[in-house]
Amino acid sequence: MQLGAMQDWSMRVTHLIDHAAREYGHREIVSRWADGSETRTDWAGIRHDALRMTQALRAAGIAKGDRIATLAMNHSRHLVTWYGAVGVGGVLHTVNPRLFDEQLNYIVNHAEDRVLLYDAVFQPIIDRLREQWPCVNTYVCFDPPPGSDVLGFEEWIGAHDGNTTWAEGDERDPCMLCYTSGTTGNPKGVLYEHRSTMLHAMTGVAPNFFDFDSRSVMLPIVPMFHAASWGLPWAGTIPGIKFVYSAVNDPAVLCELMDREGVTHSAGVPTVWLAMFGYLDSIGKDVRDVGKIGTAIIGGSAAPRFMIERLMKNGVRVAHAWGMTETSPIGTTGAYPYNWDEMGFEERVDLVSKQGRPAFGVELRCVDLDDPGKVLPRDGAASGALQIRGPWVIKRYFKAEADATAAEQWFDTGDVAVIHPDGTLQLTDRTKDVIKSGGEWISSVELENAAVGHPAVAEAAAIGISHPKWDERPILVVVKKAGVECSADDIKAHLADKVAKWWLPDAIEFVDDIPHTGTGKISKKDLRDRFRDYKLES
Ligand code: AMP
User: Fold this and answer.
1) Domain range spanning residue 391?
2) Which stretch of DSSP H or E encloses residue 50?
3) Could you report the per-residue pLDDT of 322-351, keeping only the tens digit for each?
4) Before 233, cis peptide (omega within 30)?
5) Ligand 1 centroid vs 427 CA: distance in angstroms?
């Protein structure tokens, strides 16, 4: 049959920056740097610099498909690199500088990065590891300290005039590579395509998700090196929003920027808000005192109820979303249900405490934990292994062999969830972290969420300890807030009306710190290792 008769317009992400520069060319991009200085550019400036960067990359011998890595925080030169790298037909590889040397070593070699652009604060990483990265032949520092002899970004692109065009190619060409920091084995690469990234960006600006319009001012706290910064550098071009970037995550700096630059939107993991709350408490202010902040997109781990409550009481819309590096990362969005206006405050908080509903384009389902062939009903009760499919969901990891037996494309997320009849997702655990007691599942996440609602608890993690009768029983590991006292019984009393009686932890252990992964999540694996020889009293 004949194809349709519309124009050819390949879904390549360079269209995004062309559009922003043409339609919103003067909309500002503000960067606050690690040394406290600030710079301002705009979408037209980002495009011009990205074109200059493609010239610099060509001069460095970079060809189509080559990987261009960054080891950097959030700022405008990093944003330029996103478009410069894809503009030359390359693959942008955002490396997480918080990973351990062993992982960094593996990732850069596995990706075969040719160019590495980095922030001066990460110079020690470069100095330590560059000998082990023979694939990298060009190093460029985004913010070289005065007097240093390293190649600086402005100097590097400064030799070029921007009078060039983007590389052409297929919309299924790769454009970006992100590695997930799995808790076991080596990190795995997720290779996004131009097309998948475009579809994801277009979904991101639908009213239900980022909720942007051209007046929006976004301060993304989610790093550009984590899960494609939730797709913000791509999506933000569509309505030409103003970005305010900070290369440091100090809450005082963030609050000052939010206030001064009229920030309306922010996006980050829950711990960011914990730090902000702590700072605001210390200066006797609350979220409503910080400029115009109206939308907080929270994801990456579960947003605790007290956090949602506090933000909502301050007039902030909380979009509690779920996703993964493997899903570009949008899976669900904190969409309003049709009956939001009729809901009371508590009912709203209940809803927002769950993980939102699927974005158009992806489908979710849960299958039985013990029998993956059995798809579970969306009844708000049956909890199982969460699977997802859609055009921006991973088919296979970078350099992995195609799996000929995978007839159906459902990606196993490793999360355990319940799906409610209205489509709302409720995450209850990771498949590796659920605690099985007497044949029934206990959600470690729910125990933790309930525990962090206690005013003396800074952080909490629940793990299963083997038990002769029940197979496993939960214990709760708690870090107390500085200067606040509480006992195990206080915490148990606090939990008593929040979780089922048989879920109550058998013991509460106070510790000074809880181990985290390179992406800031609690590392249950390390915690379980620490408590390997732990004996329950009874
Ligand atoms: P990453 O690929 O590093 O972003 O990690 C993805 C994982 O983070 C998911 O599989 C979930 O386990 C967890 N996650 C993401 N968003 C949420 C959320 N809103 N609530 C609970 N866990 C989440």
Assistant:
1) 364-430
2) helix 43-59
3) 999 999 999 999 888 999 999 999 999 999
4) no
5) 9
